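so my prof wants the structure for this chain in the tokens format not the other one, which i didnt know existed until like an hour ago. anyway here's the sequence
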Amino acid sequence: MRQSQGIFPFFWGVYSTRGGTITGRNASLSRVLMKRALVIGLLLVAAIAAPPLAHHVQKAQIARMSLKVGDPAPDFALLTNEWKTVKLSDYRGKKNVFLAVYVLAFSEGCTKQMRAVQAGIDSGRIPTADTEVFGVSLDSPAANAAFAEQNSLHFPLLSDMNHKMLKIYGILKTYSVENEDYQWALRANIVIDKQGIIRLIDEGDNAVDPNTALTLCTTMHKQPASD
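here's what i got, hopefully its the right format
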């Protein structure tokens, strides 16, 4: 509490030296100012004594996808960063789909993940002739557009602001902050074949590096088409 010892003298000095002696109708104003000073001082003391906010953040059990490899991928319809609607079912029988689910735009891990996906496209490891690539997050289309521009991402970023797709796929992560629950996406790379079957799921920290997904996309491209 040593740090708090100088707080109240500071506020007392401010109001005792400003304008000299306060009398008459200014007395009530003086009392109000002193009360405010005391309140501010108490808040400062509390802030000094309080542990960091991170200590109050409780991480819920790490979410795991409710779906697994071999399951049909549920359909969804989401807006891209260019405000166009994308439906997963539109690619059934036409293209494989790579979903790169990221936590929040502009965060360090997500930036690394999305840049690695773009590098996979640029290098040809993701053959875009038969594989459609999408990023997915809770961010708005506008935020995703800014994120894409800043990082030179040339594949669509889908916005799931109402959590519908992420709930269906079971990839929402819950944190409790000051007794309030907040949810955001669990990082994941999901590869879906042309028949709409999930072929790969990488979750959590493993998904920052999409190398496994890139390798599968290349392998699936070389496989003969099946009915």
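also thought this was worth mentioning. The domain at 58-222 is CATH 3.40.30.10 (Glutaredoxin).
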